Automatic annotation (TrEMBL):
The keyword Endoplasmic reticulum does not apply. GO terms for biological process: carbohydrate metabolic process; ketone catabolic process; pentose-phosphate shunt. Belongs to the transaldolase family. Type 3B subfamily. Its EC number is 2.2.1.2. The active site is at K83 (schiff-base intermediate with substrate). Pfam families: TAL_FSA. GO terms for cellular component: cytoplasm. This is Probable transaldolase. The keyword Transferase applies.
Length: 217
């Protein structure tokens, strides 16, 4: 399973990239706003930190303008992945861009039928929003399961990029279902390394080591 981080905070991206676990980055207009930085500049910096796909989202709603925005965004770096919304105009843009060999992430997916359309449009990635689905009284993980089943039934190459993950159980369940990629905020990814018994064990070892009166350095 690939790990993407869902942030435009380059300090967090650098820290996670140094662990070797990072396969890519996803951003969206909200995360760009949160960074307080210029969109193009921050995407360019992120593309220099990770080798894998970096999702940069178009903001236009119509196909023609989406194509113009994508043209500008994909020139930033070879690893830019154009993020388009799951609308008919977004799907048209997806088809046109993937036909030209550009990576495309179709976002704001809330149903398996939408995911089926994205695969038919040749999407590189489909982003079902697990947490937002849960927030609205649906079962976000069931959505991932349904998409996995449908994509496997027809051998679609589109990768399931489980997004809007809020906690470690979301990540665990996505791994069990077989999502190809997860994207989560830095805090959620860091939480995966935590265990109360790891902390307790470390405390015990540190206390006993101090009693030996020795040093390694
Ligand atoms: O980038 C898309 C998605 O991961 C957003 O997550 O937490 O804002 O629903 P969230």
């Amino acid at each position: 399973m690939k790990f993407f981080v869902d942030t435009a905070d380059t300090a967090d991206i650098r820290e996670l990239a140094a662990t070797g676990l990072l396969d890519g980055v996803t951003t969206n207009p909200t995360l760009i706003h949160k960074s307080g930085r210029k969109f193009m500049e921050v995407v360019e910096e992120i593309c220099g930190i990770v080798d894998g796909p970096v999702s940069a989202e178009v903001v236009a709603l119509d196909h023609e303008t989406m194509m113009k925005e994508a043209e500008i965004l994909r020139k930033i770096a070879d690893n830019v992945c154009i993020k388009v919304p799951l609308t008919i105009d977004g799907l048209k843009t997806c088809k046109a861009l993937t036909d030209e060999g550009t990576l495309v992430n179709v976002t704001l997916c809330f149903s398996a039928n939408q995911a089926l359309l994205a695969a038919k449009a040749g999407a590189s990635f489909i982003s079902p929003f697990v947490g937002r689905h849960d927030d609205n009284g649906f079962d976000g993980l069931k959505l991932i399961e349904d998409i996995r089943l449908i994509y496997d039934n027809y051998q679609f190459d589109t990768e399931i990029l489980a997004a809007s993950l809020r906690h470690p159980i979301h990540v665990l369940e996505c791994a069990k279902i077989g999502a190809d990629v997860i994207t989560a905020p830095p805090a959620v990814i860091k939480m995966l390394s935590k265990h109360v018994l790891t902390d307790k064990g470390l405390e015990g070892f540190a206390a006993d080591w101090a009693k030996t009166g020795q040093t390694i350095l």
